[in-house]
Amino acid sequence: MVRRVLPRERASWAGLASGPGAWIVSTQLNYALTPWICASKVNLVPVAAIVPAAVAIAGAVVSWRAWRGAAAQEAELGAALMEAPRPFLAGVSILLAVLFALVILTQGAAALVLNGCER
Q1: 119 pLDDT exceeds 90?
Q2: Which positions ≥6 away from 46 have C-beta within 8 Å?
Q3: Taking the model in full, what pTM does it have?
Q4: Which of 32, 49, 62, 105 suits 76 as a labelling partner, its CA being 20 to 30 A distant?
């Protein structure tokens, strides 16, 4: 029997994908902006860290909603749902997305002190 995966079940992965993905984009953006920052003396890295951090937090919110939905479904169905990994996956996704959002914001805060042009 093939079981159809509902969009709500896919939402558990949102934080797992958005946190590291936003960090990769943020890091590459920081490296790409460095030559322009050194030439123009305008440090955009702290400002540019806000958008990827918001993307990571948005993934955490989606995973949190999936986790809450799994908890409500568990209350309805009882112990039969406990075998499903979805609540655990959603919880790990929330924590990972928040961790990566903090890493992105920490990198942005470091750019307030170091602009990347020091030699």
Answers
A1: no
A2: 108, 109, 111, 112
A3: 0.81
A4: 62
Q: Is the pLDDT of residue 10 over 80?
A: no
The Cα–Cα gap between 104 and 110 comes to 10
SS3 call for 61: helix
Q: How far apart, in whole angstroms, are the C-alpha atoms of residue 38 and residue 10?
A: 42
- Of all residues in the chain, the percent with pLDDT exceeding 90 is 45
Q: Which two tokens stand for residue 60?
A: 């955490």
- pLDDT surpasses 60 at 4: no
∠ CA 47-49-52, nearest 5°, is 130
